[in-house]
């Protein structure tokens, strides 16, 4: 089992819709979870972090964490074509050496 | 300021060359990372430095040699690379329990 798993997509949504991106992780001791956006040829850009169970909202983005189910999600409301990118889920695994492990990423396509 | 600066942005090197990638941050972060990313793949961890000491080496070949001269700088020395080492090399830094911020990366091509 991979440490962090994501559906590779592409996930296609129309402009203005809600995009829902999902991520599962295997290390039950993990405490820190991050979502990065990566445009083609560019470096990952941090868009959300979440550390506690529940929802965390920042503008059009909402991160959701369920530690019991080992599940993290990212909702993007009012999706825009500029949101088209690969979204990487990252988990700080509990090795004691601050190891940040990435999922394979989900490619999101928002059509006008 | 959440800036991590990597130089150079692009690098083309021959298989017999020696080159270095540089990374700098002034956020006071004490953990710094090198990642390698191939096209359409996620970043793959290479090295972690914690408080200027190498804490993780993910079985990276010795032709990649990291160095952390001080808390703000991280280097990656390259020697005798292979064409398959061509990739985007990413540096990141983070606080102990906080978010990791990436530099813009160095696009490396080995010819």
What key phrases describe this protein's structure?
heterodimer; A: 112 residues; mainly beta; six-stranded mixed beta sheet; 0% helix; globular; B: 111 residues; seven-stranded mixed beta sheet; four-stranded antiparallel beta sheet; 11 strands
Question: What is the arithmetic mean of pLDDT of chain A?
Answer: 93
Strand content of chain A: over 45%
Summed up, the helix count of chain B is: 0
**Unreliable stretches of chain B:** none
| Measured distance between first and last alpha carbons of chain B | 36 Å
Oligomer: heterodimer
Radius of gyration of chain A: 13 Å
Gyration radius of chain B, in Å: 13 Å
Shape of chain B: globular
Structural class of chain A: mainly beta
Q: How far is the first residue's CA from the last residue's CA of chain A?
A: 37 Å
The largest sheet of chain A, given as strand count, sense and whether it forms a barrel, is: 6 strands, mixed
N-to-C order of helices and strands of chain B: EEEEEEEEEEE
Strand coverage percent of chain B: over 45%
Largest interface: A-B, 22 and 24 residues
Task: Tell me the total number of β-strands of chain B.
Answer: 11
Q: In sequence order, what are the helices and strands of chain A, one letter per element? A: EEEEEEEEEEE
Q: Overall pLDDT of chain B, averaged?
A: 93
Q: SSE layout and pairings?
A:
The complex is a heterodimer of chains A (112) and B (111).
Chain A: E1 4-5, E2 11-14, E3 19-25, E4 32-38, E5 45-50, E6 54-58, E7 61-66, E8 71-76, E9 85-93, E10 99-102, E11 106-111
Parallel strand pairs in A: 2-11
Antiparallel strand pairs in A: 1-3, 3-8, 4-5, 4-9, 6-7, 7-8, 9-10, 9-11
Chain B: E1 4-7, E2 10-13, E3 18-25, E4 31-37, E5 44-50, E6 53-57, E7 64-70, E8 73-79, E9 87-94, E10 100-102, E11 106-110
Parallel strand pairs in B: 2-11
Antiparallel strand pairs in B: 1-3, 3-8, 4-5, 4-9, 5-6, 7-8, 9-10, 9-11
